[in-house]
Amino acid sequence: MITIAICDDDKSQINTLKKMLTEWNSNTIINEYNSAEQFLFNYPEVSCDLLLLDIEMGDMNGMELAKQLRAKGDMLPIIFITGFSKYIGDGYDVEALHYLMKPVDKKKLFQVLDRYACRHRSENRIILPIGNESVLVASDDIVYLEAFGKKTQVTLNDGKEIVCTCGLSEASEKLGQGFVSCHRSYVVNIGAIRKISRTEITMDSGKKIPISRRSYDSVNRAFIEYYKEARK
Length: 232
Description:
Layout: E1 3-7, H1 11-24, E2 29-33, H2 36-42, E3 50-53, H3 62-71, E4 78-82, H4 88-93, E5 98-101, H5 106-123, E6 125-130, E7 133-138, E8 142-148, E9 151-156, E10 161-164, H6 168-173, E11 179-183, E12 186-189, E13 193-196, E14 200-203, E15 208-210, H7 213-230
């Protein structure tokens, strides 16, 4: 799941981009900001994988925002979306991912997003030991992990199951944010949870996973925070 921020002082442009992003991938989390200052106030506390950034805005323009990020060593991927071609050279200076002119061509936007998603996917892969091999798996594709003695079964979005020759603790340490331990034998992807009760978690697939009493509060809190963040 990718979180994309749109920073533009034109509400109609934000709505147009949101519609395109939802069409590109309905699971995309979209956060919107109407000024560079508002974005900086919230970032990085509000997570962001990719920034769609207008240039001509209020007191601080988009290029100044990008330069501030780069000056801090932050290499957040940026796609400039603007009506002014004179800034293209500056876009190279801040290592922008791409530069799209308004009105945005949906096909071109999708091409850029597809290239980014491929790179993002590869950057979020983990290496799992399977038998005598080491296998790359995209963490976003993992629904949950289940302990089987000294091994771990990993269930993926497509229903495929792979068995790792390492324990649950070692396997789960490879995962980044977005996963939570709900039981001594299970670690689940928060983004794949449909609902939580006191005794079990129901995943989007319909699979029911037990939740321990001592884990309920932390898991429920993580679940609420995850979707609260998604609605921002």
